[in-house]
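Convert to structure. Protein one:
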Amino acid sequence: MIRRQSIPALFALLCVIYILYALVINLIVHPNAETFLSHKIGSEHVVKPAVWLKVMNVHVGFACVAMASGLINFVSRNYEKRRRFHRLNGYVYVIAVVLVDLSSGYMAPYATGGKISSIGFNLLNMIWMAITVTAIVQIRKKRILQHRRWMVRSYAFCFTNLLIHLFTIVLHQWIGITYVTSYTIGLYGSIVLLLALPEVLFRIWKTKNRAAV
């Protein structure tokens, strides 16, 4: 049975593994993303591979920065003693989120699945940015608990790509739905799940805290 104290360490390890996996797959194993680009049908815009790949690398790179930066602030202890570092690292996280959103905004018109997927990615970008800005507003008002909760909600969106691909694998390879349809369902399914999971976690934590009293 996994001890409660070991859960943050396990979560951190899984995040590090995923970051390394994303970097290796996108920058070393499949640097030209041939397979992924081959599924981009139904788009009104013609993909320019050279430009798209550069933007994609920026997107992946800063997505990894956001995940790592957020992880450091969540798992670090003695916040009061490291307040300056926490703040600076928070700025790194916010900048990374902005750059991920901007690069995603560029790639949205070329999204696999055409216009409906493009709308989904733009919606996702707006939600993530709105949540992140809310977290900043909360800490500026010295509402620490609310800030932490909104940061949990924001950080959840660092796992968007992971969830989309998990949905796609299950729907396409296990159930047999076409790749494009699976990807589109995965996109919208991920948005719903990423909004719901933090609220479930908050309820679980609240229940445990009541039980501990």
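Protein two, convert as well:
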Amino acid sequence: MKKRQDNLRSTAFKLLTVVVFVGVLVFFINNLYTGEPDTTLTAFSKQAQKFERHTISSHYQWRVRQPTSMIMLIHFDDTGSEIDRKPVRMNHKGWPSAQDSDEGCATVWTSLVGSPLRVDGFNVKARFYSTASNDEAVRRNDNEYWCRYSISKGSEFDYFPGLGKVTQPQL
């Protein structure tokens, strides 16, 4: 009987030790862990801001050269040196656009951002969406079609070529 009580006490002591250890571990994780920001989401947000800046810049360049269906967008590095030139197709309202397809959205990204559809090692998905009917005789409203750019981590932003509007990234 005494041996059984000793085994019971030993088991209770081991269980109490595990519970205390887990409690101390949870305390330190909650109070000492300072989560670092996700660099991929930060890089995607910066690319979205660059996309928006270059959309506006393209529009003003189109207004100066109006009417034209293409402009040459010059890309600069942080020091102000020219690093690339990309042709940008413009719609009749002076906003960057391409054919109504996923490939067209990819072309708009490449022209405005000046880099392939990649951010921090992740592929950026370019998708074309439209709520208008497929009948070409029906004139679409400018807010009925858009490009959505997203990464696998769930972050995305939309670009409405008919309006020139770029939404804030959803992080």
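Residues 40-166 form one domain. The chain has a mean pLDDT of 86.
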